[in-house]
């Protein structure tokens, strides 16, 4: 799924109020190092099997260097949001070093208002939602405090297997599962279609979504060859606005989020002189958490049984009436609710820590199993806790999710609700969506238009 122009890392921009004392780069390094003991994958790297006889394996990084992964940066004080987002865009454009553990974190100082930001990048191959969660979830707690009262353990890496050992294990695995050899060969040859079929069948709900994709998504400026550059923008909105709209017009908060994005897309397309008919649509791939069909269980360790279903929703950008847009989207999303597998926001909020970064990561993994011709953009929305979260003694005041761009897609949108706010992270291709700040402003205008219909 990854090439030079489409690195497959996810993450977030967490903004903190800096307390008077006790929160600096050194403390953040200690916090992350302390929590890594719970997640061995963050000290492992990918090792490929010679001859592609089997899938790559995880091995301990004997040269693990925390200072390589946790980095210090600063804006010229007082740093603005625009400067922070430009820095984020440049960080997003850089692929992770596949010779090391696949994550990075940047401690950014100099923000106006005595704030600091933690920008995280984690390759989606790392996050499975069961054994490994996203880095942003790892460092946050529901109360301020010192490091966990657990003795520091000296980490000793395991022995790196030799090429001979890897090949021997690969042969043994192939004897037990002979189809793996064909799959590995196809993957090595770049047979994306064949591997996508296999991946699609492994994710709950994808098959039904594929049946809905009998025709390709509409063409337009969102589906172009992606360059190596990125632009990023964060949008802050109030959760009370969504609740007010819901009280008047019905639907869910997620429906209203999608409607606000639809209105912004409509104005953005019109600003680019696009010709919109009353029935014009933009097809969004919307990954949503679902319950395990067999157990109906919601594991706090495994998020929700590691099931994220991808739903294709045609956003009615040709519709001029914002309330009608909401009704169209509510009707389309109701099919997911009626399936009996949807997971209520209150269920997700029982997951330990700050779950949205992990759920966004699982959504990105799901999106990668689809052909890039059947949707125009990816939108993930994960509810977060409506109480403050802390990294050590610093309160997080905002969290903007970061979603990767998949091949031939110029825009990806992540949405997270947290502590009374709803935060959008807009990741765009630097050439195709150079006016990302214009799109961000149109999101505000679209929500205001919906809110105006409640008076």
From TrEMBL:
InterPro entries, alphabetized: Acyl_transf_WS/DGAT, O-acyltransferase_WSD1-like, O-acyltransferase_WSD1_C, O-acyltransferase_WSD1_N
Pathway as given in its UniProt record: Glycerolipid metabolism; triacylglycerol biosynthesis; Lipid metabolism
Similarity remark: Belongs to the long-chain O-acyltransferase family.
Keywords: Acyltransferase, Glycerol metabolism, Lipid biosynthesis, Lipid metabolism, Transferase
Protein source organism: Haloechinothrix salitolerans
Classification via NCBIfam families: acyl_WS_DGAT
Lineage per the UniProt record: Bacteria, Bacillati, Actinomycetota, Actinomycetes, Pseudonocardiales
Domain O-acyltransferase WSD1-like N-terminal per the UniProt entry, residue ranges: 1-257
Stated name of the protein: Diacylglycerol O-acyltransferase
EC number: 2.3.1.20
Pfam families: WS_DGAT_C (PF06974), WS_DGAT_cat (PF03007)
Annotated catalysed reactions: an acyl-CoA + a 1,2-diacyl-sn-glycerol = a triacyl-sn-glycerol + CoA
SUPFAM superfamilies: CoA-dependent acyltransferases
Single GO molecular function: acyltransferase activity
Chain ranges of the O-acyltransferase WSD1 C-terminal domain: 305-451
């Amino acid at each position: 799924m990854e090439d030079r122009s489409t690195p497959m890392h996810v993450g977030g921009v967490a903004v903190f109020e800096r307390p008077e004392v006790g929160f600096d780069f050194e403390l953040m390094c200690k916090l992350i190092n302390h929590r890594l003991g719970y997640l061995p994958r963050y000290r492992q790297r990918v090792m490929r099997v010679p001859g592609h006889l089997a899938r790559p394996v995880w091995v301990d990084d004997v040269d693990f260097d925390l200072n390589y992964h946790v980095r210090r940066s600063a804006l010229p004080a007082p740093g603005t949001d625009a400067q922070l987002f430009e820095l984020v865009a440049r960080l997003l454009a850089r692929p992770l070093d596949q010779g090391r553990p696949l994550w990075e974190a940047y401690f950014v100082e100099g923000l106006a208002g005595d704030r600091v930001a933690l920008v995280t990048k984690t390759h989606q191959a790392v996050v499975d939602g069961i054994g490994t969660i996203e880095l942003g979830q790892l460092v946050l707690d529901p109360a301020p405090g010192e490091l966990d009262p657990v003795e520091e353990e000296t980490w000793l890496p395991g022995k790196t297997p030799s090429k001979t050992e890897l090949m021997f294990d690969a042969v043994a695995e192939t004897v037990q599962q002979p189809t793996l050899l064909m799959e590995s060969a196809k993957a090595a040859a770049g047979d994306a279609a064949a591997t996508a079929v296999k991946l699609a069948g492994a994710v709950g709900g994808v098959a039904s979504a594929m049946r809905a994709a009998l025709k390709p998504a509409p063409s337009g400026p969102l589906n172009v060859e992606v360059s190596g550059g990125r632009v990023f923008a964060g949008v802050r909105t109030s959760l009370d606005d969504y609740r007010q709209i819901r009280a008047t017009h019905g639907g869910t908060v997620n429906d209203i989020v999608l409607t606000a994005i639809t209105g912004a897309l409509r104005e953005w397309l019109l600003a680019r002189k696009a010709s919109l008919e009353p029935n014009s649509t933009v097809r969004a791939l919307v990954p949503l958490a679902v319950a395990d069909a067999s157990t109906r269980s919601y594991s706090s360790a495994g998020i929700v049984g590691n099931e994220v279903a991808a739903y294709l929703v045609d956003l009615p950008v040709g519709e001029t009436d914002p309330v009608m847009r909401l009704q169209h989207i509510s009707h389309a999303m109701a099919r997911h609710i009626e399936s009996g597998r949807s997971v209520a926001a209150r269920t997700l909020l029982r997951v330990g820590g700050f779950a949205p970064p992990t759920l966004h990561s699982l959504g990105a993994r799901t999106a990668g199993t689809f052909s890039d011709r059947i949707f125009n953009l990816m939108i993930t929305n994960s509810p977060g806790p409506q109480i403050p979260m802390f990294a050590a003694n610093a309160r997080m005041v905002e969290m903007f999710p970061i979603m990767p761009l998949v091949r031939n897609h110029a825009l990806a949108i992540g949405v997270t609700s947290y502590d009374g706010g709803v935060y959008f992270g807009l990741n765009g291709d630097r050439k195709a969506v150079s006016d990302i700040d214009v799109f961000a402003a149109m999101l505000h205008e679209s929500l205001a238009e919906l809110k105006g219909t409640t008076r």
